[in-house]
Every structure is written in structure tokens, then in C-alpha cells.
Amino acid sequence: MQTQLRTSRRDFLKIAGTTAGGLVIGFNWFSCDSPKMEVLSTEQILAQAKSFNSFLSISPTGDVVIFSPNPELGQNIKTSFPMVVAEELEADWEKVRVVQANLDPEKYERQLTGGSGAMPHSWERLRKAGATAKFVLVAAAAQTWKVPASELTVSKGMISHEGSGKKGHFGEFVAVATTLTAPEEVVLKDKKDFTIIGTPVKNVDAKSMYTGQGMYGLDFYREGMKYAMIQRAPFGMKLVSVDDAAARAVAGVSDVVSFGSNVAVVGTSTWPLMKAKKLLKISYEPETEVESSSDHDKLFADLLAKGSAEVKRKDGNVNLAFKNAAKIITAEYQCPFVAHSPMEPENFFAHVQGDKVELVGPTQTPDRARQETAALLGIPPENVSVEITRLGGGFGRRLRADYVIEAVEVSRAIQAPVKVTWSREDELTGGAYRPAVRYRFEAALDDKGTLTGYKLRGVGMNAGNTTRENNFPSGAVDHVLIETIEHASSITTNAWRAPITNFLAYAEQSFLDEVALAAGKDPVDFRLELLQRAKTNPVGEVDYDVDRMLGVVNMAKEKSNWGKNPSIKQGFSVYFSHRSYVAQVADIEVQGGKPTLKKITAVTDCGLVVNPTGANHQVRGGIVDGMGHAMYTNLTFEAGVPKQKNFDTYRLIRLKEVPEIDTHFVDSGFDPTGLGEPALPPTGGAIANAIFAATGRRLRSQPFIEQKEFSDIQLQIKRT
Amino acid sequence: MASFTLSINGTTRTLEVEDDTPLLWVLRDHLGLVGTKFSCGIAQCGACTVHVNGNATFSCVTPISSVGNAEVVTIEGLSEAGDHPVQKAWEEVDVAQCGYCQAGQIMTAAAFLNQNPSPSMEEIDNAMNRNICRCGTYHKIREAVSLASKSS
After folding, report:
1. CA-to-CA separations, A108 to A68, A173, A197, B70, in angstroms, rounded
2. Quick check: A303 contacting B, CB < 8 Å?
3. Which of A339, A646, A685, B45 is the most exposed place for a label (fewest CB within 10 A)?
């Protein structure tokens, strides 16, 4: 891991912004007697603050402004990043304001939200940013008071000298500090001395969210801007001609423009565009294969049987293992396409003016928005500014810049600032889905019930590698063959929260349950046996840390009272993804033959927990997400168009459909690892395995409610 | 186009729009009250929930011509200082992840508690089931509604 601070010493003390222009500043809140202190706005503070580095500015009032570079979509980074900076700075959290930074590749690395990677990437950088600023503030105080820096202590934004009794807040030393030189190396705090990290700090945007302040992309407004909505072509089709007469006749519609196979209606507010879009008469013709879900079953079967596969992993001699097997278990698992469906539909503001472009909106990848815009217009990337709004969810959808480029296209065509808004129908039919995948698993057991051979073959629709070949159970089995097959579909796909593993984990953990039961073993003991093998005598290379996985398995066994209550039927699942480890147990109570899903116990090792509230949120949210899509959600196609066009037929999980979720975190001593995604993958498997334990029905396809094995189960869900 | 005079958050507002324009888009595009959210547009998710004469109402399917002189309250007008018991409970419990649905959740909860100040958990579940949260903050929503019912 790279831990070097990218900000150079030369940049470190560069003074940002202007000095206070007529503002009343410099009051000392520590010595101030008046209870009625002026509360300055963040803009007022920034106007007088001095920049210590890319992450923080401090004003003479002692107020600290921390910039959060990564897009916030609910993963709580806008709260947890500043917590890390403030911890090493020894700031008073009450005096910290957080500002979403705009795209600035010169100041920030990896300014994106994806792969649960922000905290692992930035942990050291953020700590050093805070610690370096603290170092120069202390040096400034030492110089001012003419005492050795080593005699000074810092706590909650106050610097103190015990010998002389002198005390002052950060703001008093800002002017001197910015004349000093930053050190090459700083000492970071001992984790046991943390006072902000590890505490349940509340969401910094709470008040704004709960009072309805416009902070999302869809809320953005610029005087004189136009609104636009776009009709996109079915997958595999291209536009032939447009009759826009009826659409243009709608009051409030000012223009209709086409680019590629897209037709945009433009106007002065949203509602007329929704009406006008329905009045467009567009004819399309096939451009490539136009697919329907009814074709996909045969396609999957054909490709699994005889498609040319890419071998991802080969250990030992898998043919021999199956030839010598005492028992062979085979099963196929399948998942459908699903959409990301963030609550805030896709939207973006663009203003193209000559060779300059202003972009504002919700994006997980602001730099991609910039690069694709620059490429489209043939202008230098630095001519494109990107302001990042809060995101009303993302789930991977906003890793793409397709909807940004649409706004750029429309702005260029109409020569005006414009905000493109997608309807929910656009969001569900407009593409870039979690790919549909089918897996075939085969396991060979010897006469002792030991797993000796393991085969996995995956077929995906624009899925890339459908496997995670170096993940468990690889490393624990002598003879392994893992292969993947790609089908190039006209239906577009994209990373979807915990890409591939969001489904692979369910399939693999369900299949391992089948194998354990076929071997006559307890599913947890079976996994422990495999992990022991991977620990003592590993086969080949693995991506996971065996001890950390063992840690969550053992703790989940304990916390869930695994196997101890005969009236509770349990399903187990454990998965490693995005650097973290999560084990889950689903509890189904059976009374009078009726099953009720009551609880999911989740044990997570994500290293050090930065914010317990945020961590709980991510684990519970991941489980609700994993459960919802495993149980209820399906997206099917007819001639290149999704049949489910809105939430009346595209079913998302609701409040009454979630059980109790009991979360635990392993104190493993590691630095923070990912958490936006890792809790999702194990959930489908834990629930499916519990359903099998309770009813004897094995669910090998999602969504469960549409499977005939599930049709008469009448699973109830209860919370305590 | 027709002229409408509305009572929004205790203030009288007059504007000209097509009479089929949903209240949601009048609030967002014509009055600049963007706290009320668009998400599904067909009364399925509750992100657009406002109060019309005290009742939780899906503003996305409420034509402006049907509003008449009813009292409309949006998230911006739920309280002057953001200190309605439901808003305070939402802060205390730290409910939100992405936050996009939460204004609608708060409006649903506030109307519900006004009509049923001491609900059972089952009644809370039934009331809040009409609002979707894609981030899955349902446990916190239940907790916050329960807290608000005890503190109001």
C-alpha cells in the first residue's frame, strides 16, 4: 500500500482564498464570556481560513473546514473521512465543518466511489494530513510562546503549555503556522488514544437532509437553464426516424433534438417533457441481436454445455478426482439481470460554452465524467469542471458517465445550460444492469466425505470474469477447475454493488451447503474443516486471509447459537470481498409447519471500525439489499425492452419484509478495510440455506418468490 | 395554462401551470421547494410525500387542479427550525444513508404520528411500509418513529 502523502511540502502551506473582507473575526470562543457567539457560515469561515493542505483549512476563529473529496452516496464517507483527519489534528469535532470537494486531480487521488476502496486507500493519507497540520500549529505555538514544542499538548483544538499555563486555540496560531515549513515525516497517534475514530459521530449532512435542503443533483438549479428528458432505443436497435410534431406541440416544450439513437425533448420544466416524451413517434430497426429473456435460458444451457471457456484456475488433476470420487454433487444456479435503481434517478447538469464545460451532478466517478466529456468535444480535460453533489444512492450505476454525456450532448445542441433528468421508467429501461449469470458447480467427495474435487463454470452476459477464482474454497481443495464464459449481449451491464460476488457468493455458499449435507457434515464444521486445510496445507495462491475468515466463522457460530435451538432452522454463509470478511446466519423458526424468518446474525471483520453507526448502517443495508434482490427482484426482457418499467412491477424490498439484523464486529487489529459492499454477498446464501433447513426446498435461482420450489412455502418475516 | 392559488407551508402562492401538472413538479420546478423528491412518479415509493390537509399524500400523482385551497405542508415547512419531533428523532437515531428518501419518510411518519400518537411497532411497520428506502435503513426508520412517538 502506498502511504506517501502526495501533497508536496511546497504546496502544504499555500494560503488559499482571500483574507476576511470586512468580516468580524478573531473572537476567541474559549475565553469568550458572551453566550451569544456569532455562528459563522461555512462560506464565511472559508473566506478567512488558511489552507493547510488539500484536506483542511483553519480560520482565525479556530473553525476547521475539512474537505471530503470522494462522492457521498450513503456510504458515509463525508462523515468518516473528516473524522480521520480531525482525529490526528486533535480538532474539536464541534468546530469542524465538512465541505464536499469538487473534482481536482491535482489535489486528490482516487476521487471516486466504488469497490469499497476509499477508506483503505486514504486511511494513511488522511491521518498524515491531520497530523502534519497539528505539527505546524504546535510549532507555531511554541514559537509564539517561546517554549519547546515538546512541552506542548493538544486536545480538542486547544494547544496548552502546562509550565506557563498558556492556552490557545488553533485559530490563534494559524497566521504563524502558515509561515513555517511542514515536516517530511510525522508521528501518528496510537490507535488506543483515538477519541473521534471509533465513536458514533452523526452524519454531517443530517440537518440538511431532514429539513429538505436541495443537496442532490436533481435539486440543482441555474437561472436560465433548460430541462431535458430523453427517449433511448431498445437494446440492439437503432433509430431510423422521428416524428416529433405531437411532442413539440406540448406547451412548455421548446425543442426536440437527436443524437445517436437518442431523442431529447427540451423545455422549461419537467412535467411537459414527461408528457411530450410519450408523444414521440420513433421507428427503430435492429442493429445487433435483439434479445428476450425467453432466449436466455437456452443460451445459458448451450454455453454451459459447449461454450468455449477461459480457464481461470486449475489445481491438481480434476478429472482424476472425479473419476475416483465416492460421491459427485452437481447443481446449477442462476440470477437475472437487475437494475441499480437508486432512489434519485440519473440526472446531470451541463453547460457547454465554446471549449469549456461546466458539469454539476451526482457521479461516483467525476474524473470519468470529465474525461469522456473532453473526448467527446475534443477539448483538454482541464477545460471541464465537475461539481459533485450528494448522490441519492449509486450502487454502481453512477460509475458510468453515459447520463453525463447526454447532458453535454443536449447542451451542445441547444447552446444553453441544461439539466437532463431520467424518469424511473428511463432508469429501469435505460441500461447498464447487474448481468444475468448461470453457474454449474460440481463437487467430488471421497469415502470420508472430504471435498477432493471442485469445478465451477460460469456463463455471464457481458459479465467479464464470472468467477473469483482465488477465493474460498480455492486453497482448500486439491483438484480445482474454474472457468468462465462470456456472452456478448446487446443488453448493457455495469458493476452493481459487490460486482459478481453479489450473486456468486449466494450460489457458491448454497452449493457448499449442498455438499456439506451430502457429506453428512454440519455446514459450519464442513467450512471449518476446509479452512483448516487452507491454513495448514494450502493449495496454490489464494486472495483471502484464512485466519480472518476463520475469525468470522467462529464468532458467527457462537453469536448465532448455531445448531443449539431445535425449533430454529439455520442457514450459514461466509464470504470475503472488498478486503473484508462477513459471516451470516439466518434463523427460521418453524411453528405448526409454518416457517418465519426472524433474524440474520452478521459478523464482520472490516479491520478497525471508524464509525460504529456508519458500519452498522453498511452491514444492515448490505443485508437488506442482498435479501431484497435475492427474494423479490427480477428484470426480464421482451425484444430488447425490460418488461418491468417501474416499482409497481419491479419489486424492491420494503420495511415489513426485513427481519431483525444482529451485527457484530471482530476486533482484528487491521487498518480499516472495505464496508460498502462486503455484507451483501453472503446474505442470499444464508437465507436460502435456512429455507432448505426449514423446508427441504433448495432455491437455485433468484428471485426466490418466482421459483416453483418457493411457491407453497409461505415464508413469514417478523421483527422483534 | 390556468392560474392556481395555493396554500403552501402557511404561505399563499399563485402561479400559472397546466392543470394536470402534479403537485410534485409545481413544488420542485415552479416554487423551488426541492426537498420533496421525485423517484417513481406513480405513487409506489413515497419519496414525494407531502401533507395535504394533514394527510400523507403522494404529490407525484396529485394534479394541481385537485389541490384547491387545501393546506399543503412540505418538508421545508414541517417546522421552522427543523425541530419537529420526527426530525429530531431522525437526527438522534442517525437514520439516513444516502438520505434521498428520508424527507418522504419523515413526512409519512409525521402525518401518521399526528393521527396515532402512541402506535404499536406493528402499526409503525404498517404505516411506514409505503415508503421505499433503497439503502435499507428500515431498522433505523422504525426506531426513529418509535422514539418520536415517545418524545412528542
Report:
1. 10, 26, 22, 50
2. no
3. A646
Residue in A227, A269, A648 nearest the CB of B44: A648
The per-residue pLDDT for range A487-502, each reduced to its tens digit, is 999 999 999 999 999 9
Same domain, A166 and A249: no
Q: Are residues A366 and A475 in the same domain?
A: no
**A307 pLDDT band (50/70/90 cuts)?**
confident
Boundary of a domain, candidates A389, A421, A453: A421
Q: Which residues numbered 324-343 in A keep a CB inside 8 Å of some CB on B?
A: 341-343
The sign one gets for the Cα dihedral B121, A664, A521, A314 is: positive
Instruction: Please confirm whether the linkage preceding A473 is cis (ω < 30° from 0).
Output: yes
User: In degrees rounded to 5, what are phi and psi of residue A6?
Assistant: -80, -30
Q: Record the pTM.
A: 0.94
Domain identity same for A469 and A601: yes
Range of the domain at A607: 437-717
pLDDT higher than threshold 80 for residue A470: yes
> Of A367, A391, A421, which one is at a domain's C-terminal end?
A421
A529 and A604 share a domain?
yes
* pLDDT at residue A30 greater than cutoff 70: no
Which residues of B are less than 8 Å from A617 in CB distance?
97, 135, 137, 140
Could A343 and B30 be called an inter-chain contact, meaning their C-beta atoms sit closer than 8 Å?
no
Number of domains in chain A: 3
pLDDT category at B152 given cuts 50, 70, 90 is low
Secondary structure of residue A453 in the 3-state scheme: strand
Helix ranges restricted to H, chain B: 23-25, 85-93, 102-115, 121-128, 138-151
Say whether both A415 and A442 belong to one domain: no
Q: What is the CATH number of the domain that holds A115?
A: 3.30.365.10
Q: How confident is the model at residue A99 (pLDDT cuts 50, 70, 90)?
A: very high
pLDDT at A515: 98
Residue A524 above 60 pLDDT?
Answer: yes
Mutate which of B20, B83, B130, B138 to disrupt the A interface (most A C-beta within 10 Å)? B138
A648-695 pLDDT per residue, tens: 999 999 999 999 999 999 999 999 998 999 999 999 999 999 999 999
Q: Do B29 and A270 touch (CB under 8 A)?
A: yes
Element containing residue A660 per DSSP (H, E): strand A660-665
Q: Is the ipTM of this complex over 0.90?
A: yes
Q: With beta carbons less than 8 A apart as the criterion, state whether A693 and A570 touch.
A: yes
Q: Are residues A632 and A553 in the same domain?
A: yes
Would you call A624 and B136 a contact, using CB atoms and an 8 Å cutoff? yes
A505 plus A646 within the same structural domain: yes
Distance to chain A for B18, nearest Cα, Å? 8
